[in-house]
Amino acid sequence: MTAHSLSLAAAQRAYVALMMTVISRGLCAASINDDDVGREVARFRPGYTLVMTVFPDGPRFGLEVTPDGHFARSAVTDEAADLVIRFKHLAHAFLVFTFQEGTARAFANDRMVADGDLSDAIRLVRCLNRMEALILPGPVARRALKQYPPLPLGQKLRTASGIYGRVAASFFTR
How confident is the model over 24-34, as pLDDT tens digits? Predict the structure, then answer.
């Protein structure tokens, strides 16, 4: 490997790690601030755990469903999680987190695998898609999502600002 390819891989890894941090915190915030995400998360049982990771030892995050039906960040291990979503390679995660490829397309292109109940993985993808539709600018979200939902601008701005506020606050708590 050349020094350039090593630095590119290091930059991709750092970017994916940052985005996984933001996405995990964003899912927690969206489960509180958005009714659609909240309903999806409430369908998981309390204590349900999930992990998203990059194979073999890349960035990762864990979430757990709280008793009140929201996501909270968790240090759950892959072995103990009810659902593990694995990107097969860092480059695949980079495609998704730079919004060049949507999560559903990444699954379809066999860039990700789900270890756990398929219906739970689909539910998580719906949560991710809804959150992306809310927090990303329209042109970026339309590129990342298979189908962009109809969102009145006022609703999008109110919900997105609540999500962004909770994500920002989460960096200053625990």
Answer: 999 999 999 99
